[in-house]
Write a structure and sequence with these properties.
By secondary structure, this protein is mostly helical. Helices cover 36% and strands 4% of the residues. It contains seven helices and two strands. The chain starts with a helix and ends with a helix.
Length: 211
């Protein structure tokens, strides 16, 4: 057993952080030897955790890949290998957050889940989402869009005229604080802290009622 594995197993219930990104080859990390890209925060996570260097997606395309990640199954079981935007998650298959919750974890998702219906938390205790538009699927405003609206920028994230699945690129046109990545980065730790505070309050309330 490696020292990393021993360190992980020594913690009875370690914290688990899952980061899922779009269009990022696994080798583009400083921790993997890449010298033309700087990823200091992710490199630190690699240094303090476990890297699975031979892990591959069984269906490496958008929604099917996410469904595989969230169910631990192949497309044959979860039902999508062709990007079916209105396909619901299979009810007979437990999701990763459901299994984590059953094991005593508090679970929170921040960013793009890309599931249907769009407000389906698929087992997460809380989900604050950024769906990159996709209003044709029924959602009027996601949590990221609400953040922009609260700061006078509603609808401005796509005002540069680009879609969400294009190979052309343009510089981000708003202040950096309004970029989806920065919103996710700022929101994630607050989401975890708020969930913990709610749990403590619930325990205290239950203790008082029992007393």
């Amino acid at each position: 057993m490696s020292s990393d594995s021993q360190k992980f197993n020594s913690v009875k219930q370690p914290n688990v952080l899952v980061i899922c990104v779009d269009h990022w080859p696994g080798k583009l990390l400083g921790a993997s030897g890449a010298s033309d890209i700087f990823t200091p925060t992710l490199d630190q996570l690699c240094d303090n955790g476990i890297r699975y260097e031979q892990a591959y997606s069984c269906c490496p395309t958008c929604i099917p890949a996410r469904r595989s990640l969230m169910t631990g199954t192949t497309a044959k079981t979860h039902g999508d290998r062709t990007f079916q935007q209105e396909l619901r998650m299979p009810e007979a298959v437990a999701t990763l957050p459901e299994i984590m919750s059953a094991s005593g974890y508090q679970t929170s998702a921040v960013g793009k889940l890309h599931v249907f219906p769009q407000r389906n938390r698929i087992g997460f205790d809380e989900a604050l989402i950024c769906e990159e538009g996709r209003h044709h699927l029924g959602m009027v405003r996601d949590d990221y869009e609400q953040y922009l609206a609260d700061n006078g920028k509603f609808g401005a994230e796509l005002s540069h005229g680009m879609g969400v699945n294009q190979y052309t690129v343009r510089p981000w046109h708003l202040d950096e604080e309004f970029h989806p990545t920065n919103w996710i980065t700022k929101t994630s730790p607050h989401s975890v802290a708020e969930t913990a505070d709610k749990l403590v309050a619930a325990i205290e309330k239950a203790s008082m009622s029992c007393g």
